[in-house]
Design a protein that fits this description.
Radius of gyration: 23 Å
Helix content: 25-40%
Number of helices: 10
CATH topology of the largest domain: Rossmann fold
Largest sheet: 6 strands, mixed
Strand content: 15-25%
Number of domains: 2
CATH superfamily of the largest domain: P-loop containing nucleotide triphosphate hydrolases
Number of strands: 17
Structural class: alpha/beta
CATH architecture of the largest domain: 3-Layer(aba) Sandwich
Shape: globular
Length: 363
């Protein structure tokens, strides 16, 4: 571990962060930060999965903040005035096609890359500053896992725990939570790419850190491990932590994230709650045996609806007087039509398709 006031990370000097072989960022201080209550931004997402909202701190400090950040990579602008704020207690997803600037934004937020212009704040301070004694830590996985191939998985996790000041019991806990099993007794050189990815995620979770910054965390994972990672991210937010991730897994992002930002050309093109983004916001899908009967009943109730590939789509307003799913079901039931499925449309997928099909075509 580096000592003194600075450590070399990815070719640059940063005074208060160190990087272990897994790319996990942590502060020089090794004491564990006490758990913090989650902010209200997360209440809807994690209360639905069994959590109970707690009071927010009186003074809120943004976990990550980028203000008018510009960065060129070669001759091409990777970020063009990006404004991004992640509040404590959020599970925030950066969504966008390749080349949108997601990874560059994460690297700048961590202090691994300097912005050409703009301001960056990580946990209330410049990520490259010399401020000490925060008692705060950041776990990250950016640019893929960097592992020590001669170590076993357990040895790698134990090394991370030692560097971060975490008890060794957390190694066993992470192994159990991620279902790593006996693979951790083998040298990392024998691991598949998916096994390396899941081990790197396990290392980022040790501490536990207050903030997780993850670039495509579930890429290459099988469905079982994807579910485990998703559950652990939700649990991290329930316990008062914050997550910033980039992802191409739109179904996971729509289900997990309290907010998402759609990136295009190095800027945020759209931002908000997943269910309120894109052309499908406020739209419901109905699957019925008799679509024509459903259309007649819905139109008689003055709802805008149409058929699409065997389903009936209903357009509703987003305001306080909008129609919700229970009202749609009531209209159909009164007409003797009982749907086999009624759900809100996958809005994030349509918003992403609109973004990549238009402004980011070919990007």
């Amino acid at each position: 571990m580096a000592s003194g006031r600075s450590a070399r990370i990815a070719g640059v000097w940063t005074p208060w962060l160190v990087r272990d072989p897994l790319g996990v960022q942590c502060s020089i201080t090794t004491r564990r930060a006490p758990p913090r209550p989650p902010g209200p931004a997360t209440a809807g997402a994690w209360a639905a999965s069994g959590g109970r909202p707690s009071a927010r701190r009186a003074t809120l400090v943004a976990a990550v903040e980028l203000r008018s950040v510009h960065r060129r990579l070669g001759r091409s602008p990777a970020l063009a005035g990006l404004d991004l704020t992640i509040d404590e207690g959020e599970l925030y997803g950066l969504i966008g096609p390749n080349g949108a600037g997601k990874t560059t934004a994460l690297r700048i937020a961590l202090g691994l890359l300097r912005p050409d212009r703009g301001e960056v704040s990580l946990l209330g301070a410049d990520p490259r500053s010399g401020r000490r004694g925060r008692g705060r830590r950041v776990g990250s996985l950016v640019d893929g896992p960097a592992l020590s191939p001669r170590l076993t998985g357990r040895e790698q996790l134990a090394l991370i725990a030692s560097w971060s000041g975490a008890p060794q019991a957390e190694v066993d806990q992470v192994i159990r939570q991620l279902g790593l099993g006996r693979m951790t007794e083998r040298p990392i050189v024998t691991y598949s790419s998916g096994m390396r990815q899941i081990l790197a995620i396990g290392a980022a979770l040790i501490g536990p850190p207050e903030l997780l910054v993850l670039d495509e965390p579930t890429v290459g994972l099988d469905p079982g491990h994807r579910r485990r990672v998703d559950d652990l991210l939700l649990e991290h937010v329930r316990a008062g932590g914050t997550v910033l991730l980039s992802s191409h897994q739109l179904d996971d992002a729509e289900r997990l994230c309290t907010r998402v930002g759609l990136m295009a050309d190095g800027r945020l093109a759209e931002e908000g709650v997943p269910a309120e983004l894109g052309p499908a916001a406020g739209r419901y899908e109905v699957t019925v045996g008799d679509p024509d009967a459903a259309l007649r009943a819905l139109r008689a109730a003055h709802l805008v609806c149409w058929r699409d590939q065997g389903k009936v789509l209903i357009e509703t307003s987003r305001g306080p007087n909008g129609v919700d799913g229970s009202q749609i079901a009531k209209v159909l039931a009164e007409a003797g039509v009982y749907p086999s499925d009624l759900r809100r449309s996958r809005t994030l997928e349509l918003a992403y398709a609109e973004l990549t099909g238009g402004r980011m075509s070919g990007g």
